[in-house]
Amino acid sequence: MTQVVATFYKFVNLPDYKEKQASLLECCQTHQIKGTILLASEGINGTIAGSRHSIDQVLLYLKTDLRLADLTHRESLAKDPPFERMKVKLKKEIVTLGVSEVNPNEQVGTYVTPQEWNNLIEDPDVLVIDTRNSYEVDIGTFKNAVNPNTHSFREFPDYVNHNLNPNQYKKVAMFCTGGIRCEKASSFLLKQGFTEVYHLKGGILKYLEEINPDESLWEGECFVFDERVAVTHGLAQGSHQMCLGCGHPINDTDQASPHYQDGISCPYCYDRLTPEKYARQQARQQH
Q1: Catalytic residue (choose from 176, 182, 222, 243)
Q2: Kind of enzyme, top EC level (predicted)?
């Protein structure tokens, strides 16, 4: 049965976020929704899947909180259920940067629509930064974008502190999958003294949804955090699969490698495969 996949986030002051957990989980379970929703004092972040009616009901429930009345979401379709269970988690941050004084509810950079994005990133005076992790960047990114080579978003502040000078880079444009990481990154850069900071509204997914492939500056596929693994223009499912040993997206070339074993390892993790882990992965394959 085809599933509707809805992703959403909103930076908003939610001092009572802990009290919202139980009722939100109950609502999702009542409507047979699967996925994950994160709640923190700074806002909400979620990806959920279910039937058309169920998704609509949960979104309506969320918007009964006036602070979330203007919550926007993005949708795509999945042939099979992309999640196994429903979780509503309490967090310190809805996306973890690890810098407590950064608050997107106080300040963020300038939002740039997908239609305006090409002109911005083709400006030679603009430094374009992909704020995602290396394994995401590996399978696709915007033309001429800088890869900070981070393994988690927590490493982004160190990258900025060691590589970017606000006196050298006057204009910085950032992007990420759905907009949440670059929104927080823009708040961080403004705290560091950068003055012209831009970020792609709705992220890569909104760009791929709205921009014609003939006009697109996107190269490759976009990693997504569910069983689809990657999407392309029009949010069609991409060609990548996921290594069950390490979670890295893999393509046909990776699967042709002598280091690839289905369900066990791939060229990105074979050298870290201990005998114990090999045995665990092999046992999992046999079930």
Answers
A1: 176
A2: oxidoreductase
pTM of the predicted model as reported, rounded to 2 decimal places: 0.85
Which ranges of the chain does DSSP label H, i.e. alpha helix?
Answer: 17-30, 52-62, 114-121, 134-137, 156-163, 180-191, 203-210, 252-255, 275-286
* Res 88: pLDDT: 98
3-90 carries CATH number 3.30.70.100: yes
| Domain spans, the chain | 3-90, 110-220, 249-285
Angle at 72 between CA 101 and CA 36, to 5 degrees: 70
Could you tell me whether strands 196-200 and 73-78 are parallel, antiparallel, or unpaired per DSSP bridges? unpaired
CB atoms within 10 A of CB 10: 21
pLDDT of residue 134: 94
Greater model confidence, 150 or 81: 150
Is 176 catalytic? The answer is yes
Pairing of strands 3-11, 43-50: antiparallel
Read off the DSSP letter of residue 265.
B
